Amino acid sequence: METLAEQFQQVSKQKSRVQQHNRLLKQGLIFSGGLILLLIGYLIFIEFFTPLFGRWPQVQKSLQRAEAQNYYLKEQIDSLYRVNDLLLELSPYYTGVFYEVQIGAFEHFDLADYQEDLVKMNIDYNGPLDQYTLGKFRDLPKALAFQKDIQQMGIQDAFVVAKVDGERVSVKEALQETKRLQESRKESLEKNPT
Question: Can you tell me the distance from the alpha carbon of 185 to that of 194, in angstroms, rounded to the nearest whole number?
Answer without folding.
Answer: 14
